Amino acid sequence: MSRIFQTLGAGHDDIPLLWIAAPLTGLLVQPIVGYLSDRTWHPKLGRRRPYFLIGAILSSIALFFVPHSSVLWMAAGFLWILDASINISMEPFRALVADKLPESQRSYGFVVQTLIIGIGTWVASNLPWMISQLGVSDSAPQGVVPMSVKVAFGIGALVFLISVLYTIFTTSEYPPEDMEAFEKEKQKKNQFIPDIVNNIGNMPLTMKKLGVIQFFSWFAFFTMWSLANPALTEHVFNAPAPIEANFNMEILEQKEAFDVANTTFQKASNRVGSAMGIYGLSSMAFALLLTFYTAKRNINRKYVHMASLILGGLGFIGMYLIDNPEHLKYCFVLVGIAWGSILSMPYAMLSSSVDPKKMGMFMGIFNMFIVIPQIIAALGGINFISGLLGDEAINAMLVAGGSLIIAGLCNFLITNKSAISYQS
């Protein structure tokens, strides 16, 4: 998305605000979907799967049209639609893992989910590069997204729809234990707002402490998602996005110079995307190791998460220090270890600390600790803090590194033994 925004003329200081769609839609959509899915039972689709289906259809449509945006506001608008739709699918997926598994297997379950996410991240990040290697052009006129990116988004839309449909048709859900009581609860007057407010006020202490860790973790990753492309194309590949105002398009030589600079930027963006794909690959490898281990043994979730986040923070800081683009992959290996832990350990710890009957709602409320730091980052938090270090876009990666290390150290706050390690 950052690459598309830059192609359509956005400066790197504008990009975090353009990304605000993601956390805002999550803040609004996920608690609502979590609440509704707790109170849903469809005879054929069950509790969570109706939301998978709706979210997948809308997301796939938005994914297809995003790279065909002709102006910046259109791309930002499609991102709002895309993120709202993805959130409809995402929250019930997490709740489904907790629904399906006994407490003793939840670390294992969330780790397996992380493993599969890692595979998708690696493939998706490399798609534009893979497609360009097949001969699809990275070049495009000023203000037009290259065909390689358009094809990648189209493939993403198709894969997303097929994978969610596969889940819907091959996964069963357990009905409520007491269907009569469940139906009576559904027929009560809608108490959505009071229930949300009451559960926020009475959330378990462990959930609040995990929220602090989540705050710094997701501030860091939002910084990466929004600013890694401008930061790394400029600092590591020396190929920043050309600014149209610096070229006189009526002069042939200047137009040709712009086209060369733009193609160089697009190719550098492909390489940044491929490097970022490494974090999906390493999160997958990390999750695979945890999968084998947690299948038979308990782990100390607290210390695993702490060490993982600190390693990820060092990976972000390393992006500032390297002088060889080939070394970028090692930084993303470390970032991937943190990402693999973020997608599994907090949810495993949370699911051991909340009422199973309200799992969907609490997962939705927990999402507030994910989206609020992203909103703060988008509304100027990243620009302000990184601006204290200088004007270069790469300073944002230093901010991400520091934030992730703070998140790691905040794991010392977790003291609930059942959250730290399941005891049978």
Automatic annotation (TrEMBL):
PANTHER family: SOLUTE CARRIER FAMILY 45 MEMBER 3 ISOFORM X1, SUGAR TRANSPORTER. It is found in: Membrane. Keywords: Membrane, Transmembrane, Transmembrane helix, Transport. Signal peptide: none annotated. Its main location: membrane. The chain crosses the membrane at residues 17-37, 49-66, 72-90, 110-131, 151-169, 210-228, 272-291, 303-321, 327-350, 362-382, 394-414. Pfam families: MFS_1 (PF07690). PROSITE patterns: MFS. This is MFS transporter. It comes from the Bacteria. It is a multi-pass membrane protein. Residues 1-175 form the Major facilitator superfamily (MFS) profile domain. Gene3D superfamilies: MFS general substrate transporter like domains.
